[in-house]
From TrEMBL:
Keywords: ATP-binding, Cell membrane, Membrane, Nucleotide-binding, Transport. GO terms for cellular component: plasma membrane. SMART domains: AAA (SM00382). InterPro entries: AAA+_ATPase, ABC_Ni/Peptide_Import, ABC_transporter-like_ATP-bd, P-loop_NTPase. Belongs to the ABC transporter superfamily. GO terms for molecular function: ATP binding; ATP hydrolysis activity. Its main location: membrane. This is Nickel import ATP-binding protein NikD. It is a peripheral membrane protein. The lineage of its organism: Bacteria, Bacillati, Bacillota, Bacilli, Bacillales.
Length: 268
């Protein structure tokens, strides 16, 4: 069964009258991991945000996004709000846009967990602390008392991932979730996400420039270029039998970057 089905998604910048994502169609099967790769500015983040109706005004969208067979354009604001979090959760590229700048991180985490689970304050605190520790944030109490601007990009990314571990969402959209992390922390954090997937069988969309990592975690792969999907298929097939020169270029260019990461994986 497809958890998500995207039909003919186009995204246009109204001001510049420019099409940024062109007629994209793809499906994501229940429990699988679909990766989206492609150079900077190819439309990966816009595509991900469209799936949760998070794109800013000024961008108009055409096409259909079906979540478990239901057209998300027909969801009320309230049902979309309820769905974001436990059903669909997005780990954003930039943590600063994910958290309310006017409150400490702990308030956001507790409110979000509280909206989806009927835990006591002590249970919420315990679950959040444990998740923050799993993403290697060694002093959870301190992290919870900080404002977003007081945390580094990597700490914010890990905090978003910790919240995913707590919420246990059905679909995780991870938009370059570990770009601000060093290779060892990246390994540990990706491992936590993999364990979460093993435990709850969640579906994942994983955007990454790191094709070594993509090859390791994704069942299927889309390659985007200039707002279009130019190659698609099972990950291993795309790696071994790609049709586009562009895919070949991406694979060879990224290989160099991911070698370091793979070395660490082999040592472990
Ligand atoms: N809110 C916006 N308004 C207008 N144009 C935008 C907006 N957000 C993104 N764009 C443009 O749309 C194009 C695709 O952007 P997008 O962020 O989806 O790229 P990406 O593939 O995710 O890149 P990266 O790998 O650098 O994150 C880019 O040219 C970008 O400048």
């Amino acid at each position: 069964m497809n958890v998500l089905e995207v039909r003919g998604l186009s995204i246009r910048d109204d001001k510049k009258d420019e099409i940024l994502v062109k007629n994209s169609s793809f499906q994501v099967k229940q429990g699988s991991c679909l990766a989206i790769a492609g150079e900077s500015g190819s439309g990966k983040s816009l595509t991900c945000r469209a799936l949760m109706k998070l794109n800013q005004s000024g961008l108009s969208e055409k096409g259909t996004v079906l979540y478990k067979g239901n057209d998300i354009a027909k969801f009320s604001k309230e049902s979309l709000r309820k769905m974001r979090g436990r059903e669909m959760y997005m780990i954003m590229q930039n943590g600063m846009t994910a958290f309310d700048p006017s409150t400490v991180i702990g308030v956001h985490l507790k409110q979000t967990a509280g909206e989806h689970y009927g835990w006591t304050a002590a249970e919420t605190e315990r679950n959040l602390h444990s998740a923050l520790e799993r993403v290697l944030l060694k002093n959870p109490g301190e992290v919870m008392n900080q404002y977003p601007h007081q945390l580094s990009g990597g700490m914010l990314q890990r905090t978003m991932i910790a919240l995913a571990l707590v919420l246990e969402p059905g679909l995780i959209i991870a938009d370059e979730p570990t770009t601000a992390l060093d290779a060892i922390t990246q390994y540990e954090v990706m491992n936590e996400l993999s364990l979460l997937r093993d435990r709850i069988g969640c579906t994942m969309i994983f955007v990454s420039h790191d094709l070594g990592l993509v090859r390791k975690v994704a069942d299927e792969l889309l390659i985007m270029k200039d707002g279009e999907i130019v190659e698609r298929g099972e990950t291993e097939t795309v790696f071994m039998e790609h049709k586009q020169e562009y895919t070949k270029f991406l694979i060879s260019a990224r290989q160099v970057l991911s070698d370091n990461f793979m070395k660490i994986m082999e040592v472990r």
